[in-house]
Every structure is written in C-alpha cells, then in structure tokens.
Amino acid sequence: MLIYLSSIWNSRYFLFSLVRMDLRTRYRRSLLGLGWSLLQPLAMTCILCVVFRHFSQAPIRDFAPHVLAGLTAWNFIIFCSVQGCQCFFQGEAYIRQCPLPLAIYPLRTAVGGMFHLSMGLIVVVGVCSILRSPPGIAALASLPATLLLLFVFGWSLAVICGSANVFFQDTQHLTEVGFQILFYLSPIIYRLEDLLKMGGARLAAGLQWNPIVPFLNLLREPLLNGAPPSPGDYLRAALIALAAAGLAAALLGRLQKRLIFHL
C-alpha cells in the first residue's frame, strides 16, 4: 500500500495538470468563472429557504446556515460519485499509454470536488458570520480532520462508482436516481429536531443510520454552533470512510491490470 501511495505521489504533477485542465474546461468563456462555485450554493440556499422555510420552526438565521452547510457537503459527495462514474473513461487515453496507478483518475475527480468544497466553505463561514457569529478558532481547527475524512470518502466513492460504471454503464443513471432519493432521506433541507417536534421520532431515529449524516454533523457543528464535533460523529464518519476506502482498495487491486480490457 505504501509503495502504491508513493507512486501516486510521484505522479502528482500529472494529477494536478489534469485537475487544472478540468477547471479550465468547466469555466472556459464563463463571465463569472470560479464565482459560480460561490454563487451556486447561495442561490440554491435562497430558493430552498423560500420554499421550505415554513416547514421548519427555526428562524432564518438558523435555517439558512443549516441548509447551506448541508448543501456544501452534499454537493461534494454527489460530485465525486456522479463525476466519478466517468473518471476511467475520461482517462482512457492515458490509461492505454501510461502504466500509472489507476487511483489517479478518481483522485482527479476528488481533488476537483475538494476545490469546489473549499469555495463553498468560504461562503458558509461568511453567511454564518453575518447571520449568527463568526466561528471560533477552536471550532475552525476541527475542519482539517473533517475535510480529510470527506476527501477519503469522496475519493473512495469515485473509485467505486467509476469501477462499476466500466462494467455496467447504467451505473451513472442509477447513481443519479439513488442520490436524488437519498437527498430527501438526509437532513439537508430539514432538521432532525424538527422531525422530533412533529412526532417523527421513529423517522428521525432511522435517519441516523444514513451514512451521510455524520459528515453533515462534522461540518455543521463547528460552523453553526461554534463547537468541535463530538467524538461519536468522528468515529462514525471515520468508520464509514475506512469501509468505503477498503472496498475501493480491493476494487483497484483486482482491476489494476484488467481494467484496460474493458474500456
């Protein structure tokens, strides 16, 4: 494993050139350019607050940051999953010519997603500072560990979805449908405490098994409440990320020499 990771590190300049090319392609001839990374979550938050604000008992100063932080984490996860479905097909020309580690191509997706996640966090911190209060230093110090867990989870999802899509190319469509369902089963546009107040204790307890929830809590606690996340949330998120990483590593081990024949 260490040898494999060191080979990825040795190819870092190739990786970063791919990420840079993706960002340039995405924002080429765009008036706002990278500003869309800041505007998109803000626009979605405004729309969701207008539509769903009356279903929540929380004031707007609490509800808007809750939705914005949830969307920021969600967009990263769905980006890694849906875009990851095409990661090996996008790198097909390089895979045929260069014997590089296959993990570089889903890593390309995860690094691009992490860039947009970082832009989104800037917006979240700004909105929280305006509507609530600026997060403290102790709270912000917990973010690097959260971002690391999210990065491992997103990279693993890109590997899993990309590997599955090579052999079954309906995977991307199924992923899009599955995540659309999961969106409403995740506390992004609503709060679990609101479900409890409306008598949905059983539903709220069931949603705690959602693998996305620990990552949402890790991001929301320091930014919204100014407190480091609980050890329980760190443990749950770490177990989920490690389980996904283990599955991704097993897939890469089996496909490293055989994937080229299926592209």
Plain-language structure description:
This protein is an all-alpha fold and 263 residues long. The protein has one domain. It has 14 helices and no strands. It is globular and about 55 Å long. The model has no long low-confidence stretch (mean pLDDT 86). Helix 13 packs across helix 14 (231-255). The two termini are 25 Å apart. It has helices spanning 2-10, 12-26, 35-52, 60-84, 87-90, 92-97, 104-131, 137-140, 143-167, 171-184, 192-197, 201-207, 213-225, 231-255.
Q: How is this structure best summarized?
A:
This protein has 263 residues and is an all-alpha fold. It has helices at 2-10, 12-26, 35-52, 60-84, 87-90, 92-97, 104-131, 137-140, 143-167, 171-184, 192-197, 201-207, 213-225, 231-255.
